[in-house]
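[Meeting: bench + compute handoff]

Bench side (C.D.) handed over the final construct sequence. Compute side (W.E.) agreed to return the predicted structure before the next meeting so the bench team could plan truncations. Sequence as handed over:
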Amino acid sequence: MNVMTWIDLSLFFVLFVLFIYIFVTVTITNLHKVYLTFHFTMMLWPFCQFALKTTVDPDVQLFYVKLAFIDSILLTIGWLLFTIFLTGKSYLLRKKKTLILYIVAALILIGVIINPKQSFVLPMHGGYVERSYGPLFWLFILFLICTITISLYIIYSALISNATQRIKKQVTHVLKGVLVLTVFVLLDVFLNVVLFKSQPVIPGMTSLGILISAIFFVIAIHRDKIFDLVTIAHQDIIDTLTLGILVLDDNETVVEINRSLLPNINLQIGDRFDLSTLTPQEQTASAFRLFQHSYLKQPMERTEVEVFYTSLQAYINITAAPIVVGDIMVGRILTFQDRSELHRLIAETNHQNVILQERNLALIEIQSELSQTNQKLKQMAITDSLTGCYNRHYLTQYLEQEIIENMILKQPFAIILLDIDFFKTVNDNYGHLVGDVVICSTVEVIKQSLRETDILARYGGEEFIVYLPNTNHSQANLWAEHIKFMIEANKVYLDEVAHSVSITVSMGLLSINNFAEQYAESPTNQLNDLFESVDKALYQAKNAGRNQIVEIIR
């Protein structure tokens, strides 16, 4: 074998060494796995080119040719996958168009393996060291160009997007690798396939392009740490936090600072940190001095303070915690949290609570007023406006229910209907105002003569009705005589009248003692019947000369 034969093998070993270096020195993630698989496929091409030239058996040579191009198909798909993962566009893998690309790649792969009617590769001079290519090969080249075009489009989209500078830096390295590999592959095809009859074959073109593109990645991985997941995640996390973070070593030297802190504290990595520079104005200075004392005298303890900075017009919560490794303090981490919005919300909440309390008190007062008003309205609805006793409407509703209960329980009761005698004469002689006074005075006398369970209501102008529950006819007579006597004995003194005014009343008394009769009528009809009966009794008392009691017993 001549020197040219060993070129591809040498390139294979260099790629293999780089593969081992990457595998050993970096943390394995999904992105690493894609790249390492891609890197492994890069290694197979120069190996197959070397192995092809180490045998004279055409079948073995054809095997290595097919293996090389199968590898190149995988290499092409690997480029695309690596580009997609690196640019964070893994969602593209779920699209149906991507599935079509895989199907085309699989069909070409099957065509390379089967090589139907030597439509992919044809031997020359009895072997495949020198060979010619059929239409299936050019279909593969077209597939390669399409895949590279898609990769370049994805890279272009990432570069013009709002991605972070770190992502753009990684994509730039990928772009360089894609361009280098593309140029060398196309040169290989042009010089060694298109022009192979007019000039000698130049070996190792594609292998050299693969190596140079791989070197781009190795340099980027080693120098820019584009695959250092821990560093990337750490920096991304602390930079996206709204919490200001300051990391110090054991000499109080700044070793890490995030973006949230930079606008407020003029520090850079490598500067010496002095806690006294953070001393606030007098408003919270005493609390800060306690924090400073704990910070200096008890370095192994976690301590915090909330201070107000007039210059920032902000409440800042400062927390200092030790970084301990093996019971030895190797540094500190300080966090700075702006709590101004929290204070504003608390103040706003307190203000709203005060307003709500005031409104609640106002509502309670309104509710009380409404309750009193409703009570007054209710009282007005059931009482007589002049005398204050119940009105006829209330008495009617009350007695309808009482009659039913009395009938069921067979409890005796009585109804007195009384009328002031010659009341028209009082109005005519003394005026209606005096007449109203006489009515009110009479009502007071009647109320004083009744029991708590008795009901007094104004039946008409000068007519009043008294309901005596649980009262038999003899008791009812006594109460009627007592009421009549008290009214007659009552003397009304008026400023407008020189002498006192006295009145008498006529009474109709209805006593219900017999419950043998079953009332089939409604309570309303029954009550009307009772009112009609007691009204007849009153009429008889008036006709008999007034100032009398006429009783009807049932």
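W.E. noted at the follow-up: The CA atoms of residues 255 and 269 lie 5 Å apart. C.D. will use this when planning the next construct.
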